[in-house]
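---------- Forwarded message ----------

FYI, see the LysR family transcriptional regulator record below. Original note from H. follows.
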Amino acid sequence: MNIPIKTLQCFLTLVETENFTRAAQKCFITQPTLSKIIQRLEESLGETLLIRNNQKVELTQAGQLFEHSAREILGQWHRLQEDMSNLSGLKSGRLRLGVCPMMSSLIIGLLTSYRKRYPGVELHMYEYGGFGCEQALLNNSLDIAFTALPTTHETELVNQPLTKYPLLACLPEGHPLAEKDHLKWQDFQPYPFILYNEDFSLAKLINRLSRKAGVQLNIAFRSGQWDFLAAMVEADMGVAILPEPICNRLSTSKLVFKPMQPAMTWDLALIWRQSLPLTPAAKALLELSKQKTEG
């Protein structure tokens, strides 16, 4: 069986887009060409990998198995290319970096320094929630990722802590809880709670700590956008918990922020897969982050 790397790339692009037209555009080929590539792949394997319909493309059981292997193979190929191109130092390459949307504004300084120091490295950034970053690392689709601790796959991932920020209760002006100096988990019980999407590390942290305190939050809404979440609080649709840097950006809004007791922190870190060596480009980012943290 001889399957070109290009075929694997086309197959995974099709899986991600779930559409032949969009996948062909991303692969810079025509749709009939992509259809022939997938057909030859299925004939070579002797298995149907995709279920085709007018709405979208779905994976068969064989397709799911092949997708996992294809990601591993492409990940290893990417790492080989990186190692070979950087034998004499980090002058070129590609860094596949995962970033949680809420963290993006907090890591600009580090990424700016990285670009200046390694201008030949292509930076490919992918936005995921914390759990999405973990899955992409385990699928070998990323080299390294920014996320919040703790991770779900603790035994399979390594982390380098970066910084931590207080987590504050976010309330609309005039809310009954706004009169308190600090808030406890029990204070939230009578009120609707607005939480992040389920794949966000911060959502998992809030759920874990509230349950530990014996409190079942009344989750009314979820959002993956901190500004929309804050807007819902301001509209008196519920209360929330936000990291201090986000609260500082909302200082002109009609919101009140209160510390939690016991205090909670949002711990940011770089994470990568334990069973795989870091690529030279990822290792350079990690080293730079250590220098800035220690400095």
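H. also flagged this: The chain has a mean pLDDT of 90.
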